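Please check the following for our workbook:

***
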Amino acid sequence: MHILLGLLTAIVTILFLLHRMGVNLRGLNPFDWRRRREFAKRYGADPIYSIEDPIHVAALLIIGAAKLNGDLTAEQKSVAQEQFESNFSMDSRAAAQLFGSAAHLLAAPQLIDTQLAELADKNKGRFSRDQAESMVQMMIKVASADGDLSTTQREFIEVIRSQFVPVEKNQGTWA
């Protein structure tokens, strides 16, 4: 028994001296390691994927569809804010803030394709049929504010329409 107590005392003394010398021993705690890993995964990820409000998701997809060709123009910005005011029942200040936050989150043009695809895939069950149709119409209006839709924009809008607006099958009498 006295040997076990001496061994434990030596281990505690070594750990105490290592701590006093500045050696970080927090990595040895498995519970602390798990908590730090979950924190890093949650807050180190792209903030675009943590959005859960359907209005914000719709704003991101609308602005993203317009940004597929490059930077937004002044006409697209004004049309987007008008659409946000009328369809989301917002005042002009809230619509401007929603536009600003969506444009800021989609600031990296080289990542916009993958961001929008993953965002749409993650949130396709959050919208009703009417909300999805309204969102697609807003995407078309904002993206075509300066002219015709590009091929990339048209393909993206069709992908969103196929994911979010389910096609109702014509059911016969035997269904």
